[in-house]
Amino acid sequence: MTPSAPVSAADIEQLSANPEVNEWVVKVAEVTQPDRVVWADGSQEEYDRIAAELVEQGVLIKLNPELRPNSYLARSDAADVARVESRTFICSELEEDAGPTNNWRAPATMREELQPLLEGSMRGRTMYVVPFAMGPLGGKITQYGVEITDSAYVVLSMALMTRSGSAALEYMQPGDEWVKALHTVGYPLVNAEGETREDVAWPCNDTKYITHFPEDREIISYGSGYGGNALLGKKCFALRIASAMARDEGWMAEHMLLIQATSPEGKKYTISGAFPSATGKTNLAMMRPKVDGWKVETLGDDIVWMRPGDDGRLYAINPEYGFFGVAPGTGWSTNPVAMETIRENTIFTNVALTDDGDVWWEGMTDEAPAHLTDWQGNGWTPESDLPAAHPNARFTVRAGQCPTISPDWEAADGVPVDIILFGGRRRTNVPLVYRSKSWEHGCFLGATLGSEQTAAAEGPVGVLRRDPFAMQPFTGYHMADYWAHWLEMGEKLGDKAPAIFQVNWFRRDADGRFLWPGFGENIRALAWATAAVEGTVDPVETPIGLLPNVADINVEGLDITDEQLAQLFDVPADGWEAELDKTEEYFESIGEKVPAALHEQLRQVRAGFAK
Ligand code: PEP
Ligand code: NA
Ligand code: MN
Fold first, then answer.
1. In testing the pocket of ligand 1, which one of 324, 330, 390, 397 has its CB within 8 Å of the most ligand atoms?
2. Whose atoms come closest to the Cα of 324: which ligand?
3. Is the minimum distance from the CB of 237 to ligand 1 under 6 angstroms?
4. Which residues bind substrate per the record (predicted)?
């Protein structure tokens, strides 16, 4: 076929058994005008073939198979390295429904704005049709979608991050609900006049649009090839679109990890947890407990979907199939489980290349190799001023390769959740661990979650970036309505609701030193939480929540003084009064829709300090 001839239904070889899918695929092909349309079957053979083609084209670098079998390095455009929140839009009919935390455009306006960009955007390229499932095939909590993309890198990444291919398509029968996810890098190889240009290793466009149509269950992403902007099953579907679906249908789509912790007595607790970026979510998900007898198993590190089961409890799945983790800072001392997970079958993006064809990044080893090729392809030595790996360099790998993966991680209908954690990076005020007084109070903890910028040294409260439920960039509707949905779920779950705890691994002393060692020692905080759930420890009631008796925290073998321990659990009245003032301002910024129950929680915490 000549590049300028538009693709029509007759040219698209493998149509699906679902006319609604076919109709959409044909419509997209007519607008974007690719050279050919390929339906991804999700097989290993397909994966290997596409990867080999990309190596041939210089898009991927094959790593040394003896050091890193079946693994590849991609180097992105220097300006396409992260999610772009300023170009992310929620296109609900009413602006009010996007709320104050999202960029909004009316759906018709956005579609008009996108139309000229999409026209001919895939000229000269292959358009891939990637059916995928978010969750185990056939599960009660699982949802389905189809991503159309002109990026072969995205096809490979989707094969690692989702259950993609023909098997997923079987679950999209006529009349079933599925999400339309259209992605183009916005770099056609042929223009409207028929003139051609050479491809580049990482095609993208300076203009970017990451758009969501929650009422149509649809995503259109233009101009970026990077993870969160382009792997549309992840943030766009599993959080922004799914959060809106979950509100309508009575379930929850959350930015959470999912683990099981087994006690020395052999009791297993399922724990989900919301943590803002850069607070060690992946490390906690893959924790090697430092206390004998405890075991932690991994189910997910980024997204959790939860739905009440027939027994009234809240069941959770990890809708993803892989990890898209930040490489820098991941090392044998900080996260050995992640290091083992990425030994093979991994795509690395924007990490450094060693001279023997392996990968390296800051924090992988204490000492940097004497010579590297940096993430942009330039020579690098330890004397270089710039980092060898981009700070947001990533690994993409199947979750099944994780040595601590739980046998339950693919349980079709999920596992019942015992404990929900909320945690931020807080140098002051917030104790190591404490329990909420009720579900409503737990919602208050979630709604007021935030992380201090690490550079913020001033004042007792510091500069807080609010990240409610760790969902600030990912809630697909009005933030206050999302809080109301959490409150409503609690009412529905009643006494079967999980217990909610706040944790903070990042408290500092007056000299700015961390009071808690973190990482594998965090099991000590989780152990207290499980004891609190069992009722084998009595918490202390304070204005902010139910704190441990310091004597109930197991510090055996830890290098920590009584004074440091006391500081870890200190609840300074002045610091909290300042914090509560800021919370009030924050609620005002979210507006009139903030549920009365959360204002009431704020009033009660204040009243506790006034006593
Ligand atoms: C992403 O940027 O694609 C992503 C997964 O983001 P984060 O690590 O912040 O969740
Ligand atoms: Na990011
Ligand atoms: Mn995330």
1. 324
2. 1
3. no
4. 83, 226-228, 277, 392-394
User: Relative to the CA of 326, which ligand 1 atom is closest?
Assistant: 8
191 close to 150: Cβ distance less than 8 angstroms: no
* Backbone dihedral angles phi then psi of residue 552, each to the nearest 5 degrees: -90, 0
Amino acid at 265: E
pLDDT of residue 347: 99
What three-state secondary structure class fits 422?
Answer: strand
What is this model's ipTM? 0.90
Rounded to whole angstroms, the Cα distance separating 23 from 121 reads 19
Cα 235 to middle of ligand 1, angstroms: 8
Q: What mean pLDDT is predicted for residues 451-476? A: 76
Both tokens of 478, joined, read: 């009005």
**Consecutive H or E run containing 96:** helix 95-98
146-169 as b/e: b if 16+ CB within 10 A = bbbbbbbbbbbbbbbbbbbbebbb
In this predicted structure, what is the pLDDT of residue 460? 43
Closest ligand, as measured to the CA of 327: 1
pLDDT exceeds cutoff 80 at 354: yes
Protein residues placing their CB within 5 Å of the ion ligand 3 = 302
Q: How many CB atoms lie within 10 A of CB 188?
A: 24
Q: Is the CB of 277 under 6 A from ligand 1?
A: yes
Closest C-alpha to ligand 1, atom 3: 228
CA 140 vs CA 137, 170, 310: distances in Å: 9, 15, 11
Chain segment 184-193, per-residue pLDDT in tens: 999 999 999 9
pLDDT at 3 over 70: no
170 residue type, one letter: E
**Average pLDDT estimate for 495-508:** 98
Question: Closest residue (by CA) to atom 9 of ligand 1?
Answer: 277
Share of the chain above pLDDT 90, in %: 94
pLDDT in tens, 554-566: 999 999 999 999 9
219 is written with which tokens? 């995503």
- 393 marked among binding-site residues: yes
What's the full length of the chain, in residues? 611
Residue nearest to atom 4 of ligand 1 (CA): 228
Is any ligand 1 atom within 6 A of the Cβ of residue 276?
Answer: no
Helix (H, G, I), strand (E, B) or coil at 15: coil
Does ligand 1 lie within 6 Å of residue 233's CB atom? no
Beta carbons of 523 and 296 less than 8 angstroms apart: yes
Residue nearest to atom 10 of ligand 1 (CA): 277
Residue where the block lists tokens 């973190």: 518
**CA–CA dist 263, 201 (Å, integer):** 49
| Pocket residue to mutate for ligand 1, from 157, 224, 235, most atoms within 8 A of Cβ | 235
Question: Residue 275: CB within 6 Å of ligand 1?
Answer: no
CA angle 188, 194, 196 (to 5 degrees): 55
pTM to 2 decimal places? 0.97
What is the Å distance from ligand 2's center to 228 Cα?
7
- Mean pLDDT over 47-56 rounds to 98
pLDDT tens-digit profile of 571-595?
A: 999 999 999 999 999 999 999 999 9
